[in-house]
Write a structure and sequence with these properties.
alpha+beta; three-stranded antiparallel β-sheet; globular
Length: 75
């Protein structure tokens, strides 16, 4: 994953109180960590599983899945 979309993911996730994790091929990273997102090495077309836990998890899930579905449009 390139730096710009990784930074945008972290920025969007940081606006929520809930925890956010991205899973790829059995490897889980904290979606609020730029280093974690960058080390995930998720190339275009990678299969990712997003998980959320916390008081605003539904809103966070909606925002994140929408951003992922739009192909990381500029925010």
């Amino acid at each position: 994953m390139h730096t710009r979309p990784a930074a945008a993911i972290v920025k969007l996730a940081s606006g929520f109180k809930s925890e956010f994790f991205i899973n790829k091929d059995g490897f889980q990273i904290n979606g609020k960590s730029i280093i974690g997102v960058m080390t995930l090495a998720a190339a275009q077309g990678s299969k990712l599983e997003l998980s959320f836990d916390g008081p605003d998890e539904a809103a966070m899930a909606d925002a994140m899945t929408d951003y992922f579905a739009k192909g990381f449009e500029e925010m």
